[in-house]
Give the backbone structure.
Amino acid sequence: MNSRKGFCIAILLFGVVQVFAQQPLKLWYKQPAEKWTDALPIGNGRIGGMIYGGVNEDHIQYNEQSLWTGGPRDYNRKGAVKYLEPIRKLLAEGKQAEAEAMAQQHFMGMKSNEATYAVDSAKWFNMMSSYHLPQDVLFHDNNLRTINLPIEQGWEITPGFEGLDGAVWFIKHFNIPSGWKGKNILISLGRIRDIDRTWLNGNYIGTTSGNAYRKYIIPSDKVHIGENRIAVQVVNFYDKGGLTSNAKTLSVYPEGEEKNMVSLAGAWRYQVQDDNPPACPRYNADYQPFADLYLQFRKQDVTDYKRDMDLTNATAHVSYKADGVTYTREYFSSAPDQVMAVHLTADKPGKVTLKVLLSTLHKNYITRKIDDHTLALSLKVKDGVLRGVSYLHIQAAGGKVVVDSKNISVTGANEATFYLTAATNFKNYHDVSGNPEAICRKQITAIATKSYASIKAAHIRNYQQYFNTFSIDLGKGENAELPTDERILKFSQSPDPSFISLYAQYGRYLLISSSRPGGGPANLQGLWNNLLTPPWGSKFTTNINLEMNYWPAEGLNLSACSQPFFSIVDDLSKTGHETAVEHYGAPGWVLHHNTDLWRGTAPVNASNHGIWVSGAAWLCHQLWEHYLYTGDQDFLQKRAYPEMKGAAEFFAHFLVKDPKTGYLISTPSNSPEHRGLVAGPTMDHQIIRDLFKNCMEAAKVLNIDKAFADTLKLKYSRIAPNKIGRYGQLQEWLEDKDDTTDTHRHVSHMWGVYPGTEISLKTPELLKAAEQSMKYRGDEGTGWSIAWKVNIWARMHEGDHAYLMLTKLLSPADVTSGKEKGGVYHNLFDAHPPFQIDGNFGGAAGLAEMLLQSQGDVIELLPALPTALPQGSIKGICARGGFVLDFEWQNGRLKSLQVISKLGKTCRLNYAGKIINIETQKGKNYRFNADLKQL
Ligand code: FUC
């Protein structure tokens, strides 16, 4: 979209572009990034960069949203439906283990290349096994490279081993003391991923596969007193590879005399034998890193180093002084021009000299010269059909530019600007006929005639149409001016309210940067991923995570950023129909707990948590929410309602009568990732009721489908209700079997409190039970779990408890004892750990939930204001019904309020128990004093 058009659309979307006085909204540091989670993210919804800002070498690791492994394929298991009733029956008989076993064998979706893998891998493995050399004592290993073993996180963290699967030899010489003469020796190698074949002094001593600890006993006559040589061939099929236990487990000792162990940890020699095994069958595809841009400078001693990210205009900076020259770098990722820009200046002429290279972790890549100003990188992902192309184009003022097939060198320029594009052949989940080369060429040609100033101005204009719709000021503490990493450390020691507002605005920044109209939705890491095998595939997990990513969108005035979420729902409603048919013999559509670029909707991973049926219904909750906030009737009629109806049709068919209670229940399913496959988890029933209710209301609004709505009404009243259990808790399951000491991270049965609405102050008994459950579950958790708890406590009007959770979300993730915990990394990315972006979004939404709620029939002002935030002002927060509110509070009390009515509906306001109604007119503003008296 060109910038002018974007600007006009923004005016249509938001009524008027409001520019609020901005307080400094910066993340900043006095040093370059060391780790990826220190680096600063930029993104235009499609191209994302992580900026390290090193002095001698800058590194920008970048992503393109559509680069994933895999390809279009059928994710459904034909004939799975035959097992639905037998699984249900086993569950009804209380045979959970049998039900899970049957489901695992017959009901899970299809993995990639499941049909061919057994034969291909057996062939490949035979070839590996027949290879004889490194185990031979005559093999010369002293020229081989060395690696330190073991590597608990897997060999992938070693440079050169990223994403490596296949066969690798590890060899080590070690000494056995003379005192061990005549003794059998035990060699302990710990856990090895996935198979080892081990030799000692040229003699084969054994092989083990799977998760077992490797301990081999060697008869004394096979051991040399003095030098011995161990050779281990490790075969790894997927993900983590190598010797993955801790250093203590890698040792040798006389049998029964562990205390006399000689450590084998440390340097080993290695040789990669074959890094091309057949692709391992996978349920889902992985989001991939794209490539890396390195800027290499002459070594200099520098002072006054600073690195920052300015949220007000989505530009990052590095600056420093060296030899009397001030150097600056500016970075952004532009949506209107679809390029990432890096602009280098010096305050004296001719001082910009550097060499720039492109490289990537993908093994299969080349770089080449396109023209005198452009270098290109092309890559292909290992296990999949996608190709990527990137162009790097330079424009320099003064000096000399040389482009060869690997680098761009700039010598003695006054300034230099690099523009980077990236594209793949992905068009949509069933079409990979795109031409990335042509896309890159077109984009670079388009910017080649523009000035840096105009490209930057267009970027800022485009970004601010989203960002400037909202502002928040919570006051300032004494740490406000500190670098961000220091602020994180001090946050628990003294109040730093502007850090909370920065965090909320950062959530908005991240959403704008990773989810733009026309693009794909934010995944588990938003847009940013540097690993070939990222945690959980950096995909879309739908039993909390994808939904949480979009929690702040409506309330924090970024409704347009939900468009990519709506497009994935469009896709999933189609693929999910196939799953409904193949697995359930049902109409409509269904989504289980994960999906990816190819929009698989079948159950994945293990039957104890992968068979969870409520994904589609939860997504539909957010379609309805969009309608409630925007009143967009066209969206409701053409897009949301047909999808909501499809999801409801599925459940109208799927719900069955529980033989014990007579209620309609959801079976088989699970309470996300908690205690296995069951009949009738509470969360499902809450979500299904919500779906049915919203469908009925939508049908009424649209004046259609009366008969269908009547069917839903009937079923609605028969669904198993929320129940209070023997500890006064809200039951997580149909049976009263909650464990009060269980602190599991998922708080799924709280769905009815947030994001659902059926448990509220209007249902005091259930609310009390929910509160009891929350207390049992405790205040700890992974990043997203803590963020969810912020929202839940806010909905319960427990502002101080919600605030406590927010402070946990803002606690340091990676400074204590080297072990990461839920909190924030230096770049304020949320730590699950590891990094997962949902907590950032859930946290931002949680703050909004403390200040304004509109889920009932009234807009509540400051419903859960914590004592720690006695004063503040907020502008541009949105309420259901099409209202935008600005208000201020002081000493914990409302001070003033303005409401803008976008739809002209009746506005019902509640502040501290006082309720007023106003009939509004579309486009008009209404002002109130502290007592809700209209001014
Ligand atoms: C769900 C959670 C995990 C993690 C994963 C991506 O499965 O239970 O904690 O967030 O998604």
